[in-house]
Amino acid sequence: MIYRLPYKTKQFFFVLIKLSIVVAAFCFIYQKLINNPKLDFHSFIKYSSKKDVFSTKNILFLFFLTFLNWLLEIIKWQTLVSPLRKISFKNALEQSLGALTASLFTPNRIGEYGAKAIYYASNYRKHIVLINLLGNISQMFVTTLFGVIGFSFFIATYQVNINYYKFAQFLLIGLLIIVLIAFGIRKTKFTIKGFSLKKIKHFILGYPKKTMALALFLSMLRYVIFSFQFYLLLVFFGIEISYFNAMTVITSMYLLASIIPSIFIFDVIIKGSVAIYLFGIMDINEITILSTITIMWLLNFVLPSIFGSYYVINFNFPKDTN
């Protein structure tokens, strides 16, 4: 029906959709800041100001780390797409930040897959979705690897009450679900808009190994930078803790927060609760941890999404597609 509408009408609806995405992203940011059940926004500002976290020197250094974090993410996306199509750094910047803004309010940022795909012609889009999946898998692999190592040190160092029987039950149920899903997929003609499981497997196995290795390396650098940024914020808040001890908790926190299933409404609550529990064992107060998580979110998601809103507003479909 939309193709039958006059050109100006279609353009109006297109602009309206882009504005709606930007407004929805900013409303989502506002709601997360103002209606956080665990941390009052005014208390957060007052406490952070009292600790002098927002000094010029601190802010500039934190901004620099955020810049490095997203620089690596943009280069990683440019690298991942290169076997399919060469894109400039400017294109990678636009696609990464624009997709962040468009997906910020979607569950677990799943909208990023579609947001990046629409930057390409229709014959590229299914491959772009798979490439984006590879990029997320590379980051998840690094998070899991560092997390398992850090959590092992954490358990060995601190007295953590773990019900190993229930943990084994949970692990067994999880493995059983994975096996059943894998079996079900093999017995059915699983497709993604005509992209069969066989073709997906062929694409992933045929993807250049050197490119994937570089993506893993960039993911590792990103992990090192944003985890160091978290540690630095703890220091700015006056927490006396060694880098090694902090990293055992930070890596454990990211691991547990990434494997706990959640919808975006409860995402902050769950991740905040994990961080409070882990850092609470080290006698670090709750408001410091919640304030640190909030600043990390503002720097690494809100700030880039503000710049990304410019690319969403100025987005146009590729010329070779409708």
Look at the structure and give the mean pLDDT.
84
N- and C-termini, Cα separation: 14 Å
How much of the sequence lies in strands comes to under 5%
| Fraction of helical residues | over 70%
For the biggest sheet, the summary is: 2 strands, antiparallel
Rg, rounded, reads 21 Å
> What is the total number of structural domains?
1
* Overall shape: globular
Order of helices and strands: HHHHHHHEEHHHHH
| Number of H- or I-type helical stretches | 12
Number of DSSP strands? Answer: 2
Pfam family, one: LPG_synthase_TM
Membrane topology: Multi-pass membrane protein
Organism: Flavivirga jejuensis
Transmembrane segments: 12-33, 53-72, 129-155, 167-185, 213-237, 287-313
Short description:
Helix content is 75%, strand content 1%.
Keywords:
single chain; 322 residues; mainly alpha; two-stranded antiparallel sheet; 12 helices; membrane; transmembrane; L-PG_synthase/AglD; cell membrane; Lysylphosphatidylglycerol synthase domain-containing protein
Describe this structure in words.
By secondary structure, this protein is an all-alpha fold. The chain has one domain. It is built from 12 helices and 2 strands; from the N terminus they run H-H-H-H-H-H-H-E-E-H-H-H-H-H. Helix 1 runs antiparallel to helix 12, helix 3 crosses helix 6 and helix 9 packs across helix 10. The chain is globular. The mean pLDDT is 84. Keywords: Cell membrane, Membrane, Transmembrane, Transmembrane helix.
